[in-house]
Predict the 3D structure of the following.
Amino acid sequence: MYCICCKKNNVIPNTPPISSKITTEDSPPQHEEDILWKDSKRPDGSLVNVCNEIIDNGIIHIIDAGYGSRHDGDQIVIAICDDCIKENLEDATILYWGNYMYSNTGFVYEEVEKSKQKYRRRKNLDDIV
């Protein structure tokens, strides 16, 4: 999928190699397009979509437009590559919010605080200009 920042097609859902794709009625082959629009449920009722896939070189996620947007209720699939994540975290264009796997660590707390500091600095510079 194309990165929303650099516009390069370098954020890739990890699909099985073509040689391992076996088409049956129960399990059709998965291609990138199939993964991007996948919408199903597991036996336990949890959702299965692109947000649950292994992604190479970045993040692909479905975002929801909330009240107040011209896109109220729309769900949009976006991708951002690892290089652009790093660059945009540095200048506070995107913000570090936490880590769902290691939420209670000093590292996560430090990263959140650094992101807040960069955000405040950028906002203050914008207000001066």
Observations:
- The chain has three helices and six strands.
